[in-house]
Specification:
Blueprint lengths: L2 H21 L2 H12 L5 E7 L4 E4 L1 H7 L3 H4 L8 H4 L3 H14 L1 E10 L2 E13 L5 E10 L1 H22 L4 E6 L4 E4 L1 H7 L3 H4 L10 H6 L4 H5 L4 E8 L5 E10 L4 E8 L1 H19 L3 E5 L5 E4 L1 H7 L3 H4 L14 H12 L4 E8 L5 E12 L5 E10 L1 H23 L3 E5 L5 E4 L2 H6 L17 H16 L5 E8 L5 E11 L7 E8 L1 H69 L7 H32 L8 E4 H18 L4 E4 L8 E4 L1 H17 L6 E10 L2 E11 L6 H4 L23 H11 L3 E7 L3 E9 L6 H15 L4 E6 L3 H14 L4 E6 L2 H10 L5 E5 L7 H11 L5 E5 L4 H10 L3 E4 L4 H11 L3
Parallel strand pairs: 22-24, 28-29, 28-30, 30-31, 31-32
Antiparallel strand pairs: 1-2, 1-5, 3-4, 4-5, 6-7, 6-10, 8-9, 9-10, 11-12, 11-15, 13-14, 14-15, 16-17, 16-20, 18-19, 19-20, 21-23, 24-25, 25-27, 26-27
Helix pairs in contact: 19-20, 20-24, 21-22, 22-24, 27-28
Amino acid sequence: MNKNSTNQELHDEVKRLRLQLTEKSESAQVMLLDNIMHSSTKMSVVATDIDLNVIFFSRRAEQIFGYKASEVISKNLTEIHAMEKVEFSRIENAIKIIKKTGNYECLVNQKIENGIRHLKLKASCILDKNKNISGFVLLTTDETKEIIAEKKLQKSEKKFREVIDNAGDGILIGNMNGNIIIANKSICELTGYTKSELTGKHIGFIFSKKMLEEEPLQFDELDKGKTIIKERRIKGKKGNEIPIEMNSKRLDNKKYIAVFRDLTEREKTKVLIKKLSTAVKQSANTIVITDTDGNIEYTNPEFTKLTGYTAEEVIGKNFRIINAGKLPKEHYVELWQTITQGNIWKGKFHNEKKNGDYFWEQVTITPIKNESGKIINYLAIKEDITARKKAEEALKENEEYFRTLIENSTDVISILDDKGNIMYESPAHKYVLGYRKGELAGKNSFELVHPDDRDRILVQFTKLLKNTKKFENVNFRYLHKDGTWLHLEGTGKNLLNSPKINGIVVNYRDVSARKKAEQELKRQNEEYASLNEEYLIQNEELIKAKEKAEESERLKTEFINNMSHEIRTPMNGILGFSQLLYKRELAEEKRKHYINIIQNSGNKLMYIINNILEISKLGSEQIKSSDKNVCLNDLLLELFSIFEIKSKQNKIPLYLKKGLSDKESTIMTDPKILKKVLSNLLDNALKFTNNGFVEFGYRLVQKKHALSQLEIYVKDTGIGIRPEKQKIIFEPFSQEETKLTEKIDGLGLGLAISKENAKLIGGKITLISEKGKGSTFFVTIPYKIVYKETIKELLSATKLKKLVKDKYTILIAEDEEVNYLYLETLLIDESELTCKILHAKNGQESVTICKDNSHIDLVLMDLKMPIMNGYEATKLIKEFCPDLPIVAQTAYSTTEEIDKAMSAGCDDFISKPISEDDFNEVINKFIKC
């Protein structure tokens, strides 16, 4: 009967006993208990009345507690000494619980001679017919064997788990459904998962879907009792694949075990072995492995390539098979003595190929030892040095050859140390300098150099010490043994790093005769030079006149060619489209178009003719200037309005910078001529600029004691002019590019006309240019001011401006130049505000200017600008300058636009077109004039 069936038997027996005791008399109860309970060999039964007086004591109870029934009947349980050995205090506690709940069950320990007996106690009430408690029944079973067996099982299982957990291989134990019950440390270290992450998961958790599709888990084979050993790959926590050997088998009907052996190192070893094998096979050196007797066990392909022997022909044969017998026996004796002692031997072999050719090898032989240190093989790595040997022999022959040359050379050759002491002297020392061999050895060479040449030679010698690559040419005077000075000339080379030379090699020859001849020739040349000086001057003048005439002729030729092209082009348009007008069926729209072409071509032709006539008149001084009162600001604004249209067509921004007020800029000059000069420069600037901008303006140029000139400039970022062309660009018919295919239309007269016109109004033109980066042309004219009284004011203002800084700094963020000029005029001319004006052409530029200038007092912000609009720029500026006033200006003045501007951080708002009154009202809020 197992443990569970015993418990059920006790339960059923107590239930039946309760029922019968309530139906029979007390004597009958005793008989009934005696008949039923004495027959039980497993369970002891003790019954008491309500006061715990024993009324029944079964035979099994006698065995467990050591009393006979006659000794304990009618005695109280508390008086039975043996019952104390079963922790009677727990029985008392049990009685209390029984009275409340009707049942109690526990394990108690009984002390016996051999140790402790483990008893299972179950107590319940005895009820009378009125269902009142009349007594108690204590049912006891000895569970000692079962508990001891269970503890042994638990201990065994604990030991089993410890063994599993500390195993070197990864182990998973699971049920036959594949769910993991136990995961040891090694499997956790292998996969990166914790035990809690693996426990309860299906074993397929550590395999990818692809892995399981390629090779499913074979639980059906495990059910058949088979052991499955396979190499597979599992998936780590980081997604990495881990090569393993998986050994799976069933433990019992309910469990399986899977052992995982990490094959990572084995795979690395395989890869390494493959690499080493490939390296050996593909090595440019010959590799041979022999046994300890020198018999060949392996050769790589290079061996066959070099010797002609295949691996099959030499394996098993002694290495002597390729020995040419050219080296002495002692050579090989020393080899074997070295390697048999476990040392590495390095040396050379002179061997013979299969075809009988001889060759040299540089060889390294290394003993290969096993784990116990015993030599088991020899590894020979060999390099073919036949070509090197031949080169060495050739070098040896060459050395002998050159030694013979040096010994018989007429040039003096010395080798000096790094102090200049003579280490070697060639035989030529005797023939050239008079010194016998060895007479100069150890002597410092500089002591024999002429004192006037010594410092220079020492400097050259120092250079040689620092430079090992270059030769140094030397010429100096050297003391002959007879006391005379010889002129020597030659070269020096630093060979201090050469192991054979280890010095400074100087090679020189006697050039005294040549030097004397040179001095005589120099004297004669000086005489001839003096005589021919006048002829040279005359010749130079003739050459310049010739070059000028040739240049003039060339320019005229180019002009005629260009003029022919320039005139024929519009004439072709006039004549060609005039002929087309005769067609009756010509549509009216096309007729108008043709007439427009004819008129444009005629205008272009007229422009060419006018330029030709004008350069002719300027050359003959037929054009005179006529001075008038001119406001330079107005003249430049007029030019700006004309050329802004063309700049927008070309998508090139045009900017105007004024230097004076309207009153200060009113001067006496010829406005037509000045406008013609500046128009031509602006036209060229826009014509030759594809990217960037064009800017023009002026400034006062102050000379000593007077403000005497206005410097007007036109600046562009166009193609620029090469330096060599800048001198001739103002000459008639000159252009930087002369070929028709490389130039933009024109006769090359524009700058020449501008130059001559500038002269007419007392001015001149200059330029600064860099090819590919742009040009700036300057027109400097006299400052003939109309309002004389303003000169003193201007001088005073200029002096004051040097002493006092501008009162305010205002940033105008505006991409349209006309709008910027208007705001600038309102601030300076109309409001007469003492301020410094900064100009930003887009939102991003305005942010940068505000970051770089902490003293800005006001920003006038256009909301619609390229690169970055005014809204975004205002937000960014307010982040680092929250107190800087920003006034928005835009053509859109809707409520939504105003709210959007204010939300961005603007402090006020001006609508375009901006009136002077509105502008002043807003400015006065933030600037106190």
